[in-house]
Amino acid sequence: MADETTAAGSREHPGPRGWRAAAETALYGPGGFYRRPEGPAGHFRTSVHASTLFARAVAGLLCRVDAALGRPAALDFVDMGAGRGELAGGVLAALPADVAARTRVYAVEIAGRPAGLDERITWLSELPDAVTGLLFANEWLDNVPVDVVEVDTAGVPRLVLVAEDGSERLGEPVAGAAADWLARWWPLPAEEGLRAEIGLPRDRAWAAAVDRVVRGLAVAVDYAHTADARPPFGTLTGFREGRETAPVPDGTCDITAHVALDACAWAPRTAHTPPHAPLDQAHTDSPAPSEAARTASRTPLGAAQAPRDTAHEPGKAARALPPARLLTQRAALRALGLTGVRPPLALASTDPSAYVRALASAGEAAELTAPGGLGDFGWLLQPVGIPDPLEPDPEPER
């Protein structure tokens, strides 16, 4: 995509430019939002922070991947966009001792290594070159910056340019690869004011991340929407101190937008699939999140920079990958044994302490799987060389 920065803009105080460039600077540039010392947890509450049950569930998923791989001597767990390492530490603590002894844990993050982090966790600014195990990207893709487009009075989608104070104006018509992506994944009617976010950078980032997985599973978890329920005015917004606010690219707030996970699902396979293959080939059970879900818990990842786009380097042969699968966090966590079912009342009489603990755990599980909240997050699963570990076992033949 052409550089939209105006010639009049200075390096220190650029003029209006596309949202992708503006957000990149505001979030990850010197003094950017994700480089602040308090980290994402200082502003937002995520599934990771809501309950240790989330890390335990991810640890359970890693154990399933381990079994599918034949329990290799070295098992990788990669926490992509690791914040301050909360998920990486929680997964490591929840693993059985024999699995933990074989697991190499990597936290990928642009910020520096936090003090007091478990010394067994390797802190990286880029993905490892090769991953055998589980790559888990919890709310990473929604903080990969994207451009915003808006339909003008003539029905033409144009780039939205933004100044550092958040004021906007329309720029050039969308063209090239961005226009192709828009036509394929988020076609806009010729109605003035309709908006979309061009998810191509996220597709490429996800394809490049999947490309690092030699064998195992790649998972992306995020606020999401699919082609049958695109929001007509887009989802770009800001968050500060746990509250939704106007997106202003000055480094004082998070800038995020929901993810077209169905487009991401196709990205690792586009080199060898028809450009207009039907959407139902990417299995989906991931409805668009409600407005309540948007505001119930906003999690900026302290996202790491996107890995280099090795999946699309000229001359690199594409791998034959099985179809990706989309499902809700509610369905994924239930498949991992997290249900939120209250303990039987009889336990209160026989073992009151156990009943209180079980009740608290059920409440936390209910929050993680709640409709209209965290349960509406989308999970994108891409197996590489193993069966999908969340697919139900087939019925035995009789």
Mean pLDDT, as a whole number?
Answer: 82
SS-derived structural category:
alpha/beta
Would you identify the regions where 5 or more consecutive residues have pLDDT less than 50? Answer: 1-11, 271-316
If you compute it from the alpha carbons, what radius of gyration comes out, rounded to the nearest whole angstrom? 21 Å
Form type: globular
Distance between the termini: 57 Å
Please tally the helical runs, counting DSSP H or I stretches of 4 or more residues.
Answer: 12
Strand tally is 18
Q: Report strand %.
A: 15-25%
Q: Helix-strand pattern, N to C?
A: EHHHEHHEEEEEEHEHEEEEEEHEHEHHHE
**Spatial order of strands in the largest sheet:** 4-3-2-5-10-18-17-16
Tell me about the biggest sheet?
Answer: 8 strands, mixed
Portion of residues within helices: 25-40%
What's the short story on this structure?
27% of the residues lie in helices and 21% in strands. It is α/β, with parallel strands linked by helices.
What would you say this structure looks like, in words?
The model is unreliable at 1-11 and 271-316 (pLDDT under 50). The N and C termini lie far apart (57 Å). The chain has helices at 19-28, 47-50, 52-68, 86-94, 97-100, 176-185, 200-211, 261-266, 291-296, 329-335, 346-350, 352-368, and strands at residues 17-18, 75-80, 103-108, 121-124, 131-138, 147-151, 157-162, 168-173, 195-198, 213-222, 224-225, 237-240, 243-245, 254-256, 259-260, 283-285, 325-328, 378-384. The protein is of the alpha/beta class. α3 (52-68) crosses α4 (86-94). The strands form four sheets. The protein has an eight-stranded mixed beta sheet with strand order 4-3-2-5-10-18-17-16. Strands 1, 6, 7, 8 and 9 form a five-stranded antiparallel beta sheet that branches. Strands 13-12-14 form a three-stranded antiparallel beta sheet. The longest helix has 17 residues, at 52-68. A hairpin with a 5-residue loop joins β7 and β8 (168-173). Helix content is 27%, strand content 21%. The protein has twelve helices and 18 strands.
